[in-house]
Amino acid sequence: MYPSCSHYSRQAFSEYGPIIGWVMTTDRLMRCGRDEMNVAPTVYIDGVPKKYDPLEHNAFWRTTEKP
């Protein structure tokens, strides 16, 4: 997976704090290597295929729309 689960976790804790960061990390670890492998797009990092699952794709409660 890209970014790695540890990088994803550090980013979640940094951006959303300890509670939501923990929830997002737990969710990612439960998805890692399972169903996500069938739905996430493939990216190539140094010629190695990885599944792309960035933090911003999982923050569904945040919108970029302005009122």
Overview of this structure, please?
The chain is of the alpha+beta class and 67 residues long. It has one domain (5-54). Helix content is 46%, strand content 12%. The chain has 2 helices and 2 strands; from the N terminus they run ααββ. The chain has helices at 5-31, 36-39, and strands at residues 42-45, 48-51. The chain has a two-stranded antiparallel ribbon. β1 and β2 (48-51) form a beta hairpin. The longest helix is centred in the N-terminal third of the chain and has 27 residues, at 5-31. The mean pLDDT is 88.
Main sheet: which strands, in order across?
1-2
Measured distance between first and last alpha carbons: 34 Å
Radius of gyration, whole Å = 13 Å
Taken together, the total number of domains comes to 1
Number of helices: 2
Q: Care to count the β-strands? A: 2
Query: Kindly state the mean pLDDT as a whole number?
Result: 88
Shape: globular
Q: Report the major sheet.
A: 2 strands, antiparallel
Helical percentage: 40-55%
Class of secondary structure makeup: alpha+beta
Low-confidence residue ranges = none
Q: Please state roughly what percent of the residues sit in beta strands, choosing from under 5%, 5-15%, 15-25%, 25-35%, 35-45% or over 45%.
A: 5-15%
Secondary-structure element series: HHEE
Briefly characterize the structure.
With 67 residues, the chain is α+β, with helices and mostly antiparallel strands. Helix content is 46%, strand content 12%.
